TrEMBL record:
It comes from Lolium multiflorum (Italian ryegrass). This is phytol kinase. Keywords: Chloroplast, Kinase, Membrane, Plastid, Transferase, Transit peptide, Transmembrane, Transmembrane helix. Pathway: Cofactor biosynthesis; tocopherol biosynthesis. The keyword Cytoplasm does not apply. Its main location: plastid. Signal peptide: none annotated. InterPro entries: Phytol/farnesol_kinase. Belongs to the polyprenol kinase family. One of its GO terms (biological process) is vitamin E biosynthetic process. Its EC number is 2.7.1.182. It is found in: Plastid, Chloroplast membrane.
Length: 239
């Protein structure tokens, strides 16, 4: 009901006019819920995409955390090892030799090559690193401390150092193979692998004893011989 210009009240011409006026506003009232529903459907549809992206990034994040943790542990272990040798040197339990460039430089280069080429799913790299760090390293320490009886063909080497290299290199190689097989990187058949490890350690020990250090540094000759023999015996598997 509306007022006419003359002041009289005016009624709708028919009952349907009010229904028509209401029906004209119905689309406007329904438009908002429709747009809201579309936004909700878009948000719901976007949830799997976001979840998939997060799931895809999870392995990468885990790998970064794992590698970062391994780096910290290795750094801490290396620092502790250096400090331990410093303490042994200060107590005169081992002798200190200043070998600043030649040996350490070759050692680091060979280690880098082994890591890049073989590490970590190849027994060749695992055994080569073990013989260098465990075998050759303990041979020098034991030889300087207890190496009174020299080898007849090389007066710079001793029986004690050679035996220490063979034993420590074999043990460390076996432990490293056991560790990486436990991680699932390689498969080890121990009934065959132990004999091969002993042959590799023997070859590395013999090469370390040969008096050719003035021509080829043992930080190069020993890992090369180890890699060659390990390749012939193991190939790419530790069976």
């Amino acid at each position: 009901m509306a007022a006419r210009p003359g002041g009289a009240l005016a009624f709708p011409s028919s009952p349907t006019s009010l229904l028509l006026s209401r029906s004209r506003s119905a689309p406007d009232l329904a438009a908002a819920p429709t747009r809201t529903g579309r936004r909700r459907r878009w948000l719901v549809a976007g949830v799997p995409a976001v979840a998939g992206a997060l799931a895809a990034s999870a392995p990468a994040s885990a790998a970064v955390l794992r590698d970062g943790g391994a780096t910290l542990l290795v750094t801490a272990g290396a620092y502790s090892l250096v400090r331990a040798f410093d303490a042994l040197t200060e107590r005169r339990l081992i002798e200190q030799v200043s070998e600043l460039l030649r040996g350490p430089l070759y050692y680091v280069i060979v280690l880098l090559i082994i890591v890049l080429v073989f590490w970590r799913d190849s027994p060749i790299g695992i055994v080569s690193l073990s013989m260098m760090s465990g075998g050759d390293g303990f041979a020098d320490i034991v030889g300087r401390r207890f190496g009174l009886l020299k080898l007849p063909f090389n007066k710079k080497k001793s029986w004690a150092g050679s035996v220490a290299m063979f034993i420590s290199g074999s043990l460390l190689s076996a432990l490293m193979l056991l560790y990486f097989s436990w991680l699932g990187h390689i498969q080890v058949s121990w009934d065959q692998a132990l004999g091969k490890l002993l042959l590799v350690a023997l070859a590395a020990t013999v090469v370390e004893c040969i008096p050719v250090n003035d021509v080829v540094d043992d930080n190069i000759s020993v890992p090369l011989a180890t890699m060659f023999v390990a390749f012939l015996l193991f190939g790419n598997t530790a069976t």
